[in-house]
Amino acid sequence: MTESNKATNSLPIHAVSTALPSQTSPHNPKTNDAFDRHNKPRLRRDILLSALSTTYPTTTTFHIPPSLTCDLLDLYSRIHDVNMIRFLSTAWSEWKTMGETRGHYEECCHPQWTKTEEEPLPPLIPCHAALRNCPNERPSTNVMGAMGYYCTDTLTPIVGSLVRELQEDATIVGHAVQWALREDTTVVYAVTTHPGHHANRDNFGGYCYLNNAALCARLMQWQLETGKCIVGEDGGIVSNYWGRDNDSSSNSSNKKKKKCRVAIIDVDYHCGNGTASIFYSDPSVFFTSIHCDPAIEYPFNQGYADQTGSEEGEGTTLHIPLAPGATWDGAYKEALEKAMKAIVEFDVAGLVVSLGLDTYEGDSVAVNRAGFKLSGNDYYEMGLLMGKCMMGKNIPTVFVQEGGYKMDVVGVAAAKVVGGYATGAAGGE
User: Fold this and answer.
1) What SS3 state is found at 82?
2) 138, 187, 224, 331: which is deepest, by most CB within 10 A?
3) Residues 172, 111 within the same domain
4) What is the 3-class SS of 326-338, one letter each residue?
5) Phi/psi at 266 (5° precision)
């Protein structure tokens, strides 16, 4: 039985992005800009939308927010350090003002990602690394110095279109949350351009700038607690959204009430270290990540099984590191069952899935002699398993796009996971 036939017994799927499948152009080099030989975020986005449309044409509805601009500082102020958000918002204009005609380590990425005939300016890449454990370190007022302070690698450059795309991604997440809460018997897929799960409170890297999954969880929490919509009547993102907890409709007892519980499950090949750090001491957010052992693979310094949370959040982080070569039947299915069991026991009111697809066999981002070996229908089974665990619970669920770099399979894999979840949550097979 094909996935399209299975979809007759499934929840509806809502996909939110910057374009409709008919408007994407996967073979147009002007839209297939690459950061490096692995990371092609725009191409991936187009492929994902096209595959979802092809695989589930009758059960998927595609949405483009009427306005794709928002205030990054306002939205992410409860996720990230405000100075880092300001840096990301102004770095390109400051870099442009400096008038540098060559970038540092240009071989690490493709300068032509933003290069035009009128403006042949290379991307901004760190030229040094901050001593993060030194109490005397602080971000420089020089944009090159600040880049080295906030960015953790040379693979995550600042480019001319970045602010616009980050605004688009944040808007997509906001609308995805709105759809999920409006119709809790549905599955929503936020098809963002950039991943976010490696973005920490005050640093970014690993192709990630701002943490979309963390924003999704916080917006879902806040709207469930207060009933205040993130999307206004005009279809735009509400300004000063968080600040509205100080208005006359919110009293002090309301502010002190216990937070609504949500969970985030990260199925990317790499540990979602940024998301884990953001919620590490937060008892209201359960975070679990299934990933390659960080003793072998990026991000190397986080994602170990004994890292289970701190302070009031002790026990609300579940890292499940797997050895390289993990297969669906060999280790991954058991790990996913463990993660989902923990989520169900946490008694959540909302679920966020950080959907990374670099677990596919042969994905190019894995270090030598590493990588997982999931393929084909394993991804449908992954979604089906997660969906069955949530069956009958009417839990608002949002999938947020993370990594995935094997472009010939990434679209079909994504469609299988999302479609499998929609089927499993509806009680189908």
Assistant:
1) helix
2) 187
3) no
4) CCHHHHHHHHHHH
5) -110, 115
State how beta strands 60-63 and 13-16 pair.
parallel
Residue 122: CA atoms inside 13 Å, Cβ hemisphere, count? Answer: 16
Assigned token pair, 238: 């509400």
CATH number at residue 398: 3.40.800.20
Which residue range(s) make up the domain with 104? 84-150
Say yes or no: 111 and 258 in one domain.
no
Cα–Cα dist 264/284, whole Å: 11
Q: Is residue 28 part of a domain?
A: yes
**In a structure prediction context, what are the per-residue pLDDT tens digits for the chain, which is 429 residues long?**
344 444 458 899 999 999 888 766 554 444 445 667 788 899 999 999 999 999 999 999 999 999 999 999 999 999 999 999 999 999 999 998 887 655 554 444 444 444 544 445 677 888 777 777 778 888 888 899 899 999 999 889 998 889 999 999 999 999 999 999 987 678 999 999 999 999 999 999 999 999 999 999 999 999 999 988 999 988 899 888 887 554 433 333 344 456 899 999 999 999 999 999 999 999 999 999 999 999 999 999 999 999 999 999 999 999 999 999 999 999 999 999 999 999 999 999 999 999 999 999 999 888 777 899 999 999 999 999 999 999 999 999 999 999 999 999 999 999 999 999 999 999 998
Q: Which residues pair with 348 in a beta bridge?
A: none
What is the reported pTM?
0.91
Is 76 within the bounds of a domain? no
In three-state form (DSSP H/G/I as H, E/B as E, the rest C), the secondary structure along 363-393 is CCCCCCCCCCCECCCHHHHHHHHHHHHHCCC
60 and 93 assigned to the same domain: no
